[in-house]
Amino acid sequence: MNLSSGYVELSQGMFVSSATQGPPLGVSGRDDMGRVYKYCRAGASDLAMGTVLQGPATVAGNLTLTPHTTTGGTSPGSVNIMVTCVSAVSTGFYNEGLLMVASGSGGGGSYKINNFFSLGGSATGQGGVSISTGATWKFILYNEDAIPVMTNMTIATSSKISLIPNPYMNVIVAPANTLTGPIVGVCTYPITATQFGWLQTWGPCAIVSNDTVLLGGNLVGVATTAGRVEGAQGAAAAATTTFLGNLLRSPIIGFAMAVGVQAEWRPVFLTLAP
Q: How far apart are CA 26 and CA 9, in angstroms?
């Protein structure tokens, strides 16, 4: 199966797990049936067919950081932002992620990270580094994401910076009961740990079911078993508390195209990202 983005055929086709990155993370591919896929990188574990996937967990220690305005180049037109990270993260964790202004001057700004390196270091090997606790790092934005030349978007000492990973970086099978990151799609073929491939976000696909939800029933992406879908109402169709609890744990990710059978892969129409 070949995927296309608009009228352009994408460089890495379907059913390929590659150690080398092709298109940018999050790029969409569409087949002639209207099914939509997003390009992703697997986390530390292999991804299994027919399982619900989540993105990386947001690192609380790297939220609302104070920028180094004297050395970070935060003036309008700059692409360099420097912050001291509180929490360590793995190699390349913030590749193609976002630098968001959480509060203060420039609040609401959101800029894509091109690469990053340590204070006093160089961009050699950019994107191939991990972040250690308490280290100061310079984050380089894409040129088109340079800080706008607008007074109300200036980053200053009053600003608080949050580092947000790309949702398609280091994806994992959604854990049982409680998500630790956003649901991003479904694995439709095996993708090897730390390699690149495609997850599905829209249209018919096979997902392992956790209950006997009725045809047409809404499905959530969190169940008592990792990676499974479950009817929004849970196993007891009349249990209002279960229904509300499931909706609080997970968004609706699609609807059943056939009656669910526990531990079997059943047809689901995904409605995550068209």
A: 15
